[in-house]
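Help wanted!
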Amino acid sequence: MKFAKIPMATINRLSVYMRTLQELLEEDVEVISSERLAKQCGVNPAQIRKDLAYFGEFGVRGVGYHVADLVNQIKEILGLSRTWNLAMVGLGNIGSSLIRHGNFVKHGYIFTAAFDVDPQKVGKKLPNGLVVNHVDELEEVIRERDVHIGVIATPAGAAQSVANQLILAGINGILNFAPVQIQVPDCCHVENVDFTIKLDCIAYHLSTGV
Amino acid sequence: MKFAKIPMATINRLSVYMRTLQELLEEDVEVISSERLAKQCGVNPAQIRKDLAYFGEFGVRGVGYHVADLVNQIKEILGLSRTWNLAMVGLGNIGSSLIRHGNFVKHGYIFTAAFDVDPQKVGKKLPNGLVVNHVDELEEVIRERDVHIGVIATPAGAAQSVANQLILAGINGILNFAPVQIQVPDCCHVENVDFTIKLDCIAYHLSTGV
DNA sequence: GAACCAATGTGAATAAGGGCACAACGTTGG
DNA sequence: CCAACGTTGTGCCCTTATTCACATTGGTTC
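Answered by r_m:
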């Protein structure tokens, strides 16, 4: 176990490993080798061992990894042995469908606030019981409800301004669905989810690959 | 201009550049330097020049890049000077909201087919006029409507089987929203959109960064 | 309890990617 | 027409990430 700087790619892969391991757990697989896990995750076995080695020794030589244990270890590493409170900003198509989406809760992410600017939406009750607040109340509500992570699902034009408000409210982690690069101070970590980019990438491969 | 293998990261960035350039175009900016564009995209200026250099010389020394031209050039590179037909598989929360989402059409991606297994959904007409087909008809409909790219928005459990069917139907590009790694032959290109991974990544930063 | 087995953990080798710094070269001004 | 300027395009280097290959070591068997 070292204290080297951990590559971002490693963190991403840990998340993938965890998901695969959780599936294996449901299939009552108790132990798995890096080789088999690697195949299932589509990576190199050495990669898995090295990724894990950043954080400790979790395997048993000659045997492999104990699935249930490893899931817990990775959860601990990623900071997932707790729950995180999310705030959704923007309740258009994407925003509303994400709030209804069950995968968040399943992994310990709980929406505790939702915002929009549309007066027709403000005050409405969402399927999960949340009442929509106006964006003007953002800072107050976010502090009040102990929100840790902001989710931006507004149109592109509003994203930067929302990000600014989130940061003012003390948020240090943002998941951005708007198709723009938002600028934030170093203390804040932004992850972009941009399927247009992914589609462009597919288009490129289809055009050149043939 | 070389014929080296293009890094995937370059393709992703080209897509980002294009989006930023399109914004600039709407603000009537005619010419831009790599330095200014870089700042706006959050990358290194040399990176931009190098990315573009893979495909040709698009700038004017001492001046910069002509915005409108560069947009077209990048479109040409990525294969976006045409439209692409998409098929949505899975009309749950995410699937339906994506179909309603305007950004796809704006960038030349058109849904020409939609599938689900739920008998209550099959036959229904979607807001964009598409009638939902049963997944059993997938291969037939996809060939008939000349679909190029499959979008998987099913639960995790169904994703691999849907992917298999898409590939049988001759699809070579898949955008996967299901939170699993799907296995496909080399001829098919898969891009995953997995916000759980992104959230885990934020959680990691929040837990360690403080 | 000793010898064998199998899969881990890791140092070294390889590959890839990103950034600096400068030469090349249009453009503009005198 | 020439010189000065500014930004591109790119060779080189450095950093980072991935893969290989093997020594290490817990478990298992006889």
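OP: Thanks! One thing I noticed: Chain A touches chain B through 61 residues (CB under 8 Å).
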